[in-house]
Write a structure and sequence with these properties.
The protein has helices spanning 2-24, 29-59, 61-84, 92-114, 118-121, 125-131, 210-219, 221-233, 239-247, 249-258, 266-276, 281-303, 311-334, 339-366, 369-399, 403-418; strands at 136-140, 145-147, 155-161, 164-168, 171-176, 181-182, 196-199, 203-209. The chain has 428 residues and is α+β, with helices and mostly antiparallel strands. A hairpin with a 2-residue loop joins strand 4 and strand 5. The chain starts with a helix and ends in a 10-residue tail after the last helix. Pfam families: cNMP_binding (PF00027).
């Protein structure tokens, strides 16, 4: 058992080094990608030739299948919960994925509210979603003026709920209701308002300011063209066309959500992260990182034997822990965690990794071979889910196609270390 505990500590020691470097130094993207890809390759190799083959020999294919599916499902489910609590900051890939999903969710909520606005329906879905982040929700009380005749025109409005009167002098020219827009000419020129708009009921509206629309023009002139055509025509919909629009509304909304992209500058991304981070973020990052490492430490413990060290798997875990701790420490700093606390948290991770290895060894020594094989399969599924959802996507994002060679070298290195323990080759 002591051997298992020490091996678990050894494999997690690289976390401390990664955390220390994450606090005081950030390596280049290419170097981080190469380390991450190499670690992914060695983990895949060790998992295939040490864990999976061993579990298959002990229990056959069915427990292996069940265990891998359970392990993968548990990892994804728990990781999603931890990410919602702030743990998404622990890795660049999980951070960008969480921001993407959050942007999609926000876009879907806004689209639900503005889908009945004719102007938006006249825009292609990909262009509609580009406007959504620039819309500002505003609540207007009955009797409140949105603007007065002669004011500078610097924005236009979409009515989501309520009604407003358009007045010129003391005369009511028309009444605007849900789904209509006003003030649109401010997007095309800077002339003063030609009328006064006063809320005749409580209103919910979305505002698009001229300065934001100018940003849209720089990114996609086609948005301005489509919006200009929709506003200029002011066509009255027939009953048939209105019905057709309603039938196609769900499709339009889904296409708009599918078109959402994360294209933020570093400062914009940091601002968005600060708005999402909760007070529990540092702890969530720690828990998320520990969840990534529990399956690895458990496998180390289950395969540890007196006088024998599974060097292939141990080395793979050691290498993979380094970039993960590096990325997580950077995320903790972004969440405002102090340097001393970061190091203490990682010291706790190293200790807990040793304890997980110890528990894995106890499990292997006191249960049947079938239970051990199933536990190995569950851990293997969790490790594969971790590789597929975090390490490998992040390595590719940082290093591009060059990470393929690092992954190959990692895989072959793991195989070379495992080869002496594999059955001898017979025949050609």
């Amino acid at each position: 058992m002591l051997d298992a505990f020490l091996q678990g500590l050894l494999a997690a020691m690289s976390s401390g080094l990664g955390a220390l470097l994450g606090i005081f130094w950030q390596p280049s993207r290419v170097l981080s990608a190469a380390i991450m890809a190499f670690g992914s390759g060695t983990l895949l190799s060790a998992l295939a030739f040490e864990t999976t083959i061993s579990a298959y020999r002990e229990s056959g294919f069915l427990p292996l299948l069940i265990g891998f599916l359970i392990g993968g499902g548990l990892f994804i489910g728990i990781t999603r919960f931890v990410d919602d609590k702030g743990g998404f900051l622990r890795k660049a890939s999980s951070r960008r994925r969480y921001l993407f999903e959050h942007r999609q969710e926000e876009t879907g909520d806004v689209l639900d509210r503005i889908a009945h606005v004719e102007v938006m329906q006249n825009l292609p879905p990909s262009e509609a979603q580009a406007i959504v982040p620039l819309l500002k929700p505003i609540s207007i009380k009955e009797g409140e003026a949105l603007f007065h005749e002669g004011d500078k025109g610097d924005s236009f409005y979409m009515i989501i709920h309520g009604e407003a009167e358009v007045k010129k002098g003391e005369k009511v020219m028309t009444t605007l209701g849900s789904g209509e827009v006003f003030g649109e000419m401010a997007l095309l020129n800077s002339e003063p308002r030609s009328a006064t708009v006063i809320a005749s009921t409580d209103m919910d509206v979305y505002q698009l300011k001229q300065e934001h629309f100018d940003d849209v023009l720089l990114k996609s002139p086609s948005i301005a063209n489509a919006l200009s055509r929709a506003l200029a025509k002011r066509l009255r919909s027939t009953t048939a066309s209105r019905a057709e629009a309603e039938q196609n509304l769900d499709l339009w909304r889904q296409q708009a959500i599918d078109s959402v992209e994360i294209d933020l500058s570093p400062s914009e991304e940091q601002k968005m992260i600060q708005g999402l981070v909760k007070s529990s973020a540092p702890l969530a990052i720690l828990v998320g990182t520990l969840i990534d490492g529990i399956p690895e430490s458990t496998v180390i413990g289950m395969t540890a034997q007196p006088g024998h060290v599974g060097w292939s798997f141990l080395m793979a875990v050691f290498i993979s822990n380094f970039p993960e701790a590096l990325s997580s420490s950077i995320g903790m700093k972004q969440a405002g965690t102090k340097n001393l606390r970061i190091m203490l948290l990682w010291a706790g991770v190293i200790l807990l990794s040793g304890l997980c290895a110890l528990l894995g060894n106890v499990l292997a020594a006191n249960t049947s071979d079938l239970v051990v094989a199933l536990a190995q399969a569950v851990s293997g599924g969790a490790i594969l889910a971790m590789l597929a959802s975090t390490m490998m996507p992040e390595a590719y994002e940082l290093g591009g196609g060059s990470v393929a060679f690092s992954t190959i070298m990692g895989f072959l290195t793991g195989f070379f270390i495992s080869a002496p323990h594999l059955p001898p080759v017979t025949g050609l």
